[in-house]
């Protein structure tokens, strides 16, 4: 298609294609960064939640808190907020604090995904700008050389078509990756919500059960 392969394609696309290429690199970088951040996130959070749950069933609150402090999972912050408020606040306040932390963790997981959405929306328009620019170049060459042969308008038309194609490809790439992460983060947020609710229920039940046992022992004595 082009005599000099990919380099010739880039040169034919003009300066606009360089910016589109930069957008493509940004999409790739964010994708890799988010995949690394979310890698086994839910699995690690579930493992920590199971450890905390087993400890709370046994009434070992200090052991559960220690497990959270040693954990590298971002979900540990969610449990630590509950432990921090436990015994100092009403159950409703503990639940609110844990929920706020859950929302904060969920928001942090989104990272720079907004950039993907922005690139997905604007990349085709950047390609369209390149199209307009290339056609302007073609007409300008016609005016300068006073003729309209393919040798005159070819470079401008080539730039127009290439930038359009690249802009559409990068836009589709960004939108697909953005939608994938949005769906995945939606499921992750729901998993965190279920973990947080179960954690608060178990944490706030412990004092009541302990008190009931002590009251029963005193009555028996």
Question: Can you offer a commentary on this structure?
Answer:
There is one protein chain. The protein has 221 residues and is mostly helical. It has seven helices and no strands. It starts with a helix and ends with a helix. The C terminus is likely disordered.
Provide the descriptors you would attach to this structure in a database record:
0% strand; disordered C terminus; mainly alpha; rod-shaped; 221 residues
The overall pLDDT average reads 80
Helix and strand composition category: mainly alpha
State Rg. 29 Å
How is the biggest beta sheet arranged? none
Number of domains: 1
Low-confidence stretches: 207-221
Fraction of helical residues? over 70%
Quote the beta fraction.
Answer: under 5%
Task: Give the topology string: H per helix, E per strand.
Answer: HHHHHHH
The shape is rod-shaped
Q: Helix segment count? A: 7
For the secondary structure, the number of strands is 0
- Gap between N and C termini, in Å? 95 Å
Produce a short descriptive summary.
The protein is an all-alpha fold. It has helices spanning about 5-40, 40-55, 60-70, 75-85, 90-110, 115-145, 150-220.
């Amino acid at each position: 298609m082009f005599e000099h392969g990919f380099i010739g394609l880039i040169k034919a696309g003009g300066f606009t294609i360089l910016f589109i290429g930069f957008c493509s690199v940004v999409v790739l970088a964010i994708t890799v960064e988010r995949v690394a951040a979310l890698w086994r996130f839910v699995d690690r959070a579930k493992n920590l939640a199971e450890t905390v749950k087993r400890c709370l069933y046994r009434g070992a609150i200090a052991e559960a808190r220690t497990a959270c402090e040693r954990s590298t999972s971002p979900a540990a912050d969610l449990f630590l907020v509950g432990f921090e408020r436990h015994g100092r606040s009403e159950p409703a306040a503990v639940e609110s604090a844990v929920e706020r932390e859950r929302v904060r963790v969920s928001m942090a997981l989104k990272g720079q995904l907004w950039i993907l959405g922005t690139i997905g929306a604007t990349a085709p328009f950047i390609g369209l700008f390149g199209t307009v620019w290339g056609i302007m170049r073609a007409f300008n060459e016609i005016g300068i050389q006073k003729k309209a042969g393919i040798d005159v308008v070819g470079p401008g038309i080539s730039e127009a078509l290439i930038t359009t194609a690249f802009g559409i490809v990068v836009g589709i790439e960004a939108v697909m990756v953005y939608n994938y992460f949005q769906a995945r983060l939606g499921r992750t947020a729901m998993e965190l919500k279920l973990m947080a609710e179960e954690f608060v229920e178990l944490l706030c039940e412990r004092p009541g059960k302990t008190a009931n046992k002590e009251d029963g022992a005193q009555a028996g004595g």
